[in-house]
Amino acid sequence: MLRRILAVGTLALLLNVPVPQTANAQPPTYAMNAATRDPNPRALSAVELAAGQQKAAAFRQSLELVLSARAARGKGAAVMSLSGSVWTDIFMEPQNEPGSANWCGPGSTTAVVTNWNSAPYNYNGTYGTGPIAYMKWLAVEGVPGIGPMVVYPGGNPITYDTTLRDTINNQTSSLFYWIQNPVSGLSNFVAYLNSDLNGFDQQHHPLFTIVWTNGLPGWGTWGTRHYQWVVAFDDAANFVQYGDSAGANSNPYGNPFGWHTSVGLSDYYGHVSNPNAYDEIIW
Fold first, then answer.
1. The three-state (H, E, C) secondary structure of 106-124, written as one string
2. SS3 string of 196-236?
3. Helical residues (DSSP H) of 2-95, grouped into ranges
4. In this structure, are residues 261 and 157 in contact, taking their beta carbons and an 8 Å threshold?
5. Which is it for strands 128-129 and 225-234: parallel, antiparallel or unpaired?
6. What is the number of helices (H) and of strands (E) in the chain?
7. Contact at 8 Å (CB) between 174 and 159?
8. Model's pTM, two decimal places?
9. Domains in the chain, ordered, with CATH?
10. Calpha distance 107→211 (Å, rounded)
11. For residue 28, what pLDDT band results from cuts at 50, 70 and 90?
12. What is the pLDDT of residue 199?
C-alpha cells in the first residue's frame, strides 16, 4: 500500500499534476465579525466595580453638559462647541498571518496603548521587535492570566470584548476602560466621547467602538463587526476622527487602513448602533 501511495505521488510530480489536498483548514479569507461580545463574562472585582462607578459619574457630568449645550444651540445661542482630541499611533494588521484579517482587536489595542506608554515600540520577544511584533504577541499569546486576544471558539478568529477590555487595562496599568452596552443614543455617545477625550477624570484617552463596517471607508458593502478607536470629535460640526487598523485582506472592496474623517459623527454612531452590531463601546 505504501509503495502504491509513493508511486502515485511520484507520477503526479512527473506529470505536474497536483496531488489532492485535504480540506483547507485556514480561517475565512476576509474579516468576519471579529468583534464579539463575551457570552460568559467574568464577574468584576470590587475594585473594578468602583472604577466603573467613577467613570459612570464622569459620564453623567458629561451628559449634562452635552444636553445643555445642544439645547442652547437649538435656541440659537452662541455656545462653546463640545470637542476633543487625543493622539495615538496607527499600525496595519499583518496581511499574511493566519487569521490576521480578524486582528482588529490586537490592532486597535496596539494603537491605543501608544497613547499611554511605549510598550509597542519597546517590545522585543518571541515574535520579533516593535509594534507589529507586539500586535502578534497580543493576538497569539497575550498577557499572562488573560491569554491570546484572538481565539477560535467556532472556527472563526474573534476577539471578545472582555478580552480587549482586560488587555488594554493591563497594558496601561489602569482600570480606565469599561464596556458600555448599550450606548442608547447619539447624545450619550457624544457624552462618552466628551468624557474620555476631554478628560472629565483629568485623563485624556481614546475609546474603542464596535462598528458594522458596511459603507465605511475602505469597506464597500462588506459588513462585519469590527473594532476601531476614536481620537477626535466635534459635536457642533458633526465631526469624528477614527482609526482603522484593517488592511486590504479584510474585505474584497478596498483598504480601510488609516485615519478617517469623511464620515459624520451622527452617521458614525449609526454604524455603532446598527442592529448587526451591539450599540457598544469600550471607553
1. HHHHHHHHHHHCCHHHHCE
2. HHHCCCCCCCCEEEEEECCCCCCCCCCCCEEEEEEEEEECC
3. 2-14, 46-74
4. no
5. unpaired
6. 8, 11
7. no
8. 0.89
9. 82-282 (3.90.70)
10. 15
11. low
12. 86
